[in-house]
Amino acid sequence: MTLRFRAAVLGAPGERLRVETVEAEQPRTGEVLVKIGAAGLCHTDLEVIEGQLVYPMPIVLGHEAAGTIAAVGPGVDRGRVGERVVLSWNPHCGRCFHCERGQPILCDKYVSQGPAAVTFEGSTRLSLGGVPVRTMMHIAGFAEYAIVTDACAVAIPAAMPLDRACLLGCGVLTGVGAATRIAGLRYGDTAMVIGCGAVGLSAVQGARLAGASRIIAIDLNDAKLAMAREVGATHTVNARDADPVAEVQALTGGRGADCVLEAAGNETSFRLSVEACRTGGEIVWLGKVGVNQDVSFRWGSLMGEKRITRSSYGGARTATDFPALARSYLRGDLKLDRLITHRIGLDEINRGFDDLRAGRSIRSVIMFGDAL
Ligand SMILES: [Zn+2]
Ligand SMILES: [Zn+2]
Q1: Region 180-207 average pLDDT
Q2: Do 274 and 347 sit in the same domain of this protein?
Q3: Residues around ligand 1, an ion, CB closer than 5 A
Q4: Is the residue at 208 inside a domain?
Q5: What SS3 string covers the chain?
Q6: pTM score, two decimals?
Q7: Is residue 322 assigned to a domain?
């Protein structure tokens, strides 16, 4: 039986998304059908809309989503139907060069297939009026249903509300994982976080959970800095008013931060990240600039020894990370409620991206009716 459901379709870069009724096949072997409860609007989706990140079109975007398993394909445990799940955008084969080395984000099959925007099994599965529609990051979460590979639908506790759960799928894991797993922060360290969007605010929380004693958050927006203090920043600096490097040096006897997490994604913030890091310290880059854009550094800021890591999904081990983060939220340790600044319907998705583009939102989340 063919599935029919509503989805936000992007026809070409620069266009507005259109909510259409798409058609899909039932899940194939090893796949599950997920009824989406909530989906967050991420900067990476916006990059596709604006043409900085190139995918074949038409396409259904959305890679930060949570829902309930509605049906399973052959070979998948039928007992999964009804499970609450967060979707991972990093399916991986488990057998290739990088998977064998514990680097699933670099999985050969995942990396080679990503640009085609197909299911991990390797085909287009959605269509609109007979035209194949692509699947962003193996999820296509801006739709009432998603068909994903079984391992990418990760079960979370039933008590976890789906609107907050969806945030775990991209922004929160990227930020928390960068601080707790990539940066190797130690108890008592001084951390700096540059950029207080969803990823940066999550990095602040990761630094707090890792035991950093001082967490200095940097942004140009006072409202976002206030939010950073709510989730764990001990100091905040508006870079329009003060020099973040001077501020961190004043706090650390002139040395600089033990660890700088960059989550703003512009040339100034990348330069700042190395200037503010102490000799012997560590820098983790989470933000992005255009793939052909150059970023330059003052050589002196790199002198001595500093370790720079570029991370894209916080060292994700989604099968264990999603339930652990959900439990952390349910205990009250991980703050997610305030990250959602707007709750919108699927029909309001273009307005949601306008808010993201203008910096008016931390996260707009599309609510599909049973998101709580
Ligand atoms: Zn994302
Ligand atoms: Zn692999």
Answers
A1: 96
A2: no
A3: 42, 44, 170
A4: yes
A5: CCEEEEEEEECCCCCCCEEEEEEECCCCCCEEEEEEEEEECCHHHHHHHCCCCCCCCCEECCCCEEEEEEEECCCCCHHHCCCEEEECCCCCCCCCHHHHCCCHHHCHHHHHHHHHCCCCCCCCCEEECCEEEEEHHHCCCCECEEEEEHHHEEECCCCCCHHHHHHHHHHHHHHHHHHHHHCCCCCCCEEEEECCCHHHHHHHHHHHHCCCCEEEEEECCHHHHHHHHHHCCCEEEECCCCCHHHHHHHHCCCCCEEEEEECCCCHHHHHHHHHHEEEEEEEEECCCCCCCCCCCCCHHHHCCCCEEEECCCCCCCHHHHHHHHHHHHHHCCCCCHHHEEEEECHHHHHHHHHHHHCCCCCEEEEECCCCC
A6: 0.95
A7: no
